[in-house]
Design a protein that fits this description.
198 residues; mainly alpha; Arc Repressor Mutant, subunit A; Tetracycline Repressor, domain 2; 10 helices; 75% helix; elongated
Length: 198
């Protein structure tokens, strides 16, 4: 059944609120952002915002949720292309760095996990660690990792190193940009991760 124009308008308003909230949270942080600021930017009343999101905390949680679901489609696309293991992880990291650089929702989601409400936020980092672990599991199956590698421990440290690399690259003045920094990060790591040649 086709959506009515009223349903389409509601969906468009909700998306606009979410986008504007992400911009405000990214720029100001959670505590310095108000529902009134978001409403004013969109020419809405606070009541209109609350119609779609019952509280600022729920709006923040939805921004984090929106930022945490982007990786599965990217993985499926790589699976379809036959890219797996360490190659998939390197490509996924570059894509993640590009999106963190260019996508305000992802940046806001990351910031909110540090300074947002203490309850009710999903944990996007747990999802990212899981994605890294899945790529590493495939790398083990393909013989791409040194024997005896602790995949769980490596997944945690790779995720932490990636997140730190992209955040420092985003904040540091001048080139290179976060995508280049993440690529350099992998160039340095891969020789240590791969098994020695036979």
């Amino acid at each position: 059944m086709a959506e009515t124009s009223r349903q389409q308008q509601k969906a468009a308003t909700r998306a606009a609120i979410l986008r504007t909230a992400a911009e405000e949270f990214d720029a100001r942080g959670y505590s310095a952002t108000s529902v009134a600021q978001i409403a004013d930017r969109l020419g809405l009343t606070k009541g209109s915002v609350y119609f779609h999101f019952p509280s600022k905390a729920e709006l923040a949680a939805e921004v984090v949720r929106a930022g945490s679901v982007v990786w599965e489609p990217v993985l499926r696309e790589m699976d379809g292309e036959g890219v797996t293991g360490l190659d998939a992880l390197r490509r996924l990291s570059a894509e993640a760095a590009r999106r963190f650089r260019d996508d305000v929702t992802l940046r806001a989601a990351a910031r909110l996990t540090g300074d947002g409400p203490t309850d009710g936020l999903p944990d996007p980092f747990a999802g990212w660690i899981d994605v890294v672990r899945r790529c590493l599991d495939r790398a083990v199956g393909a013989g791409e990792l040194r024997a005896g590698t602790d995949v769980d421990e490596l997944a945690w440290h790779l995720a932490a190193a990636f997140l730190g690399t992209q955040e420092l690259a985003r904040r540091a003045p001048g080139p290179p940009d976060p995508v280049e920094r993440v690529d350099q990060h992998w160039t340095l790591l891969l020789d240590d991760l791969r098994p020695p040649p036979a």
